[in-house]
Amino acid sequence: MHNDYYVSIMNKLFNNTEVAFALKNNKELKRARFLFKMISKPSLVKIGSSLANFAIKTHLPVTGLIRSTVFDHFCGGVSENDCLHVVDKMYSQGGVSSVLDYSVEGKETEKQFDAALNMTLKTIELAKERPDAIPFAVFKPTGFGRFVMFEKKGENKLLSSEEEAEWERILYRFNVACKFAYDNDVLLLIDAEHSWMQDAADDIVLDMMRKYNKEKAVIFNTAQMYRWDRLQYLKDLHSIAISENFYIGMKVVRGAYMEIERERASQKGYKSPICIDKKATDINYDAAITFMIENIETMALFAGTHNENSSYLVMELMKKHNISHNDKRLFFGQLYGMSDNISFNLAKEKYNVAKYLPFGPVRDVIPYLIRRAEENTSVKGQTNRELDLIETEIKRRKAK
Fold first, then answer.
1. Are 364 and 102 in contact (CB under 8 A)?
2. Start-end of H helices in 40-83
3. What does the pLDDT look like over 253-274, one tens digit per residue?
4. What's the CA gap between 246 and 249, in Å, rounded?
5. What CATH number labels 73-376?
6. Among the listed residues 54, 55, 70, the one whose alpha carbon sits nearest the alpha carbon of residue 373
7. Which residue ranges make up each domain of the chain?
8. For residue range 188-204, what is the model confidence (pLDDT) as tens digits?
């Protein structure tokens, strides 16, 4: 499918560092170089992660240091309003939209689940006020309920009366968020998590799609394509949507929990849900976006990827199916602080692009930041590519 003409366009497009880093000053660029150099060394990431965890647990005064380095590179701010200067700058100067992602993880009390719901409602309100700059809101299923509840429900285990009441509260939170998004015409992404809790989350999201996606895709689930069963899941979901007359919204990603998934499968002696290797995952991912674009009349795609070939394949398929660059059913997505060469160059060509913009108190966002660093270290070539682009831009500016 990738002919030479397109490959040469892609190389030119994603290698344009002037556009990629137009919003970064020299100081920010040098900070990015420093961070990616650190992240490229797995041993340093391990030590840094342990130190960060230790510092947070023992209340050492490190938030200032973390904020001015890794936090400001990968996060939008400490609160939703704190992010708005980044949101406005990215959209007005680079044409890139934002998804405000409340990245506080591992909180497991009813009070904190209600707080996460309220924060989701706040971000939906902000998106309503800035529909172009913030086209989506997002939440994680375990932000609204305990992991173990999704696990039990997915395994069809009998719940106690207290657990039944707890599960009802989870369903209530999902519905409140989805209805509020629908009422305010804001698209809502629901992230995917570990495979052994995902079935229960998928069932809830399917019900939300049935309810709120009758006119267009408002509610989006997430398909992690490192799971070999997800292409069939997508096709089965499509059949249900066709027969029941609703639209599918889907964020398609590769996935972020590979090591944990493989480890658990081998410990518990079941077949790993993860594709056999990176190549199989790539094939699976590209098959999913191809299937969705071929069925764009009933589907909306958020292509979450840092992979240049997959980004390019989406462009190619859009051209093949005569889909305009700014068709609202199709978004590209990357994480803030990564793959600016994809995000800003696509936006310059008038494609819809949104960056996930994590936010939350510095101490609470540390687990998210550690996962980002570990992910960068484990994705072959990702960090080197980031470094090469940064070095190229620093040299280009010096030569001016």
1. no
2. 42-57, 63-66, 72-74
3. 999 888 899 999 999 999 999 9
4. 10
5. 3.20.20.220
6. 70
7. 73-376
8. 999 999 999 999 999 99
